[in-house]
Amino acid sequence: MCFTSKKKRLRDNRKSVDANAMQFDILCTIAQDDADLSAKLRAVQALLEKLVPSDDKRVVRIDGKLEKRIARLRKVLTKESKRGVYKRSRKLLREIEIAAVERGCVNRAYAPCDEKDFVIEDGVLVRYVGAGGVVVLPHSVTTVGPKAFSANEAIRELICNDGLLMIGESAFEHCRALRSVTLTRTVTTIDDSAFYNCSALTSVLTEEGLTNISHYAFGKCPALSAFRLPKSVVRIGDKAFFLDKNLPKKARKKIKKISSKALG
C-alpha cells in the first residue's frame, strides 16, 4: 500500500512539474513584444524542465510555492503587457528563478565525473582536462586549486560534492560559458576572483556553512540573478560582487550590511 502511495505521489509531482514548465509557453506569448523578457522566461522554463520529481515533503512544498508564484506572474504579466512595462514581472521572474535553482538541487543525484578528467594532488584539484558541459567534482577533492578551470570555455555547470572545503583563487575566472554553480554545505571559503568575469553565470546555490567570500569572488558577473547569501557568511571582500547589477534586492541588502565595499 505504501509503495503504491509513493508511486502516485511521484506521478502527481511529475505532473505538477511539467505543468509549471508548460505555463511558460503561455507567459512567453503574453510577453512576445519584449524579446529580452521572453528570453529570460525561456531560460527559467529550461530550469523547470530539468527538475527531477520526488515524493519528499520538502520538494512537494517547494513545487507548491513555485506553482503559486507562476500563477501570480501570469496575472501580473497579463496586466503589465497592456502597458508594455514589465517591472513587477521581472522581479517575480527572478524570485521564481531562485526558487527553481534551489528546488533543482534539493533532490538531484549526480554521479561524479571520471577522475581522469582531473589532475588531483593530495585532495587539491590542480587542473581540469575534461570535455566540459556539466562538471561534477569527485568526492576526493577538498580544494579547487588556483586557476584550475581558468578561461575554460566548455564548462556550463559546476556541481560540488560534500567534502569540498575551498574554491581557490581565480579557480573559475573567465569561464564565460559557465551558467550555474551548486555548492554544498562543506564549502567554507570562496577565494579571491574565484568566479571573476563569468559573464554568463546566472545562478549560484550556496548553503549554510559558507563563511568567507573574498575580494572580486563574483566580480563582473552581470547575469547573476539567482543568489541568496547564507546567514553563516561573516566576511565579504572588497568588490566581491563588483558590477553584478542583477543581484536580488534581498541579497544586495545583506551584502551591504556585511561589507559596504562589496558591491564596488
Explained architecture:
The protein has 264 residues and is α/β, with parallel strands linked by helices. It has 5 helices and 12 strands. The chain has helices at 2-30, 35-49, 57-81, 87-106, 249-258; strands spanning 118-121, 124-128, 133-136, 143-144, 155-159, 166-167, 180-182, 189-190, 203-205, 212-213, 226-227, 235-236. A 7-stranded mixed beta sheet has the order 1-2-4-6-8-10-12, with no helix packed on it. It has a 5-stranded parallel beta sheet with strand order 3-5-7-9-11, covered by helices on one side. A hairpin with a 2-residue loop joins strand 1 and strand 2. Helix 1 (2-30) packs antiparallel against helix 2. The termini are far apart.
What's the layout of helices and strands?
Layout: H1 2-30, H2 35-49, H3 57-81, H4 87-106, E1 118-121, E2 124-128, E3 133-136, E4 143-144, E5 155-159, E6 166-167, E7 180-182, E8 189-190, E9 203-205, E10 212-213, E11 226-227, E12 235-236, H5 249-258
Parallel strand pairs: 2-4, 3-5, 4-6, 5-7, 6-8, 7-9, 8-10, 9-11, 10-12
Antiparallel strand pairs: 1-2
Helix pairs in contact: 1-2, 1-3, 2-4, 3-4
Provide the spatial order of strands within the biggest beta sheet: 1-2-4-6-8-10-12
Radius of gyration from CA coordinates: 19 Å
Q: Main beta sheet: strand number and arrangement?
A: 7 strands, mixed
Strand content: 5-15%
Number of DSSP E strands: 12
Low-confidence stretches: none
User: What structural class results from the helix and strand content?
Assistant: alpha/beta
Helix content: 25-40%
Shape: globular
What is the straight-line distance between the termini? 58 Å
Number of helices: 5
Instruction: List SSEs in N-to-C order.
Output: HHHHEEEEEEEEEEEEH
The pLDDT mean sits at 89
